[in-house]
Amino acid sequence: MAAKSIGAVTFDTFRGVVDAGGAEVQTLDRPGRSFPRWRILGTKPRESQVNTVKQYDSADDMHTAITAYDLMKGTIVTIYDTKNRETTNAAVLDMQIVFKGTALVNGATKYRIEANWTVQAGDPAA
Q1: 107 DSSP assignment
Q2: Rounded distance, CA 114 to CA 101, Å?
């Protein structure tokens, strides 16, 4: 799969890193004990924010993409960042379009979508 993608959609610009999670430690306070106790609960990824930009050649392509973006909410996808690092089983929790409209690129009119995504990495074994 190509770098800079969420699911089947590739982007021109991809900003942000998907947090893969780490060990979550719980401290156990025990009255009468002078030393702390703790336990490791396992790995827990946090929600991550990703910003994407994509330019399209026509308004129809832009509107089709907006529909595709909306349909990805609540799904499990594979994400590739700018360094082609793969995050499998990532949940798309939310997506908000920040900008949609025309942009002049190298003298040509393009149709641009900028979106903010809220994603969360899942269990790599799932």
Answers
A1: T
A2: 9
> 3-state DSSP: the chain helix, strand, coil percent, rounded to 5?
10, 55, 35
Q: Give the residue numbers spanning the domain of 62.
A: 5-19+46-120
- Evaluate if pTM is beyond 0.90: no
In a domain, 76, yes or no: yes
Does 98 fall in a domain? yes
Q: What is the pLDDT along the chain (126 residues), one digit of tens a residue?
A: 578 999 999 999 999 989 887 777 777 777 777 777 777 777 778 899 999 999 999 999 999 999 999 999 999 999 999 999 899 889 999 999 999 999 888 888 999 999 999 999 886 554
- Count of domains observed in the chain: 1
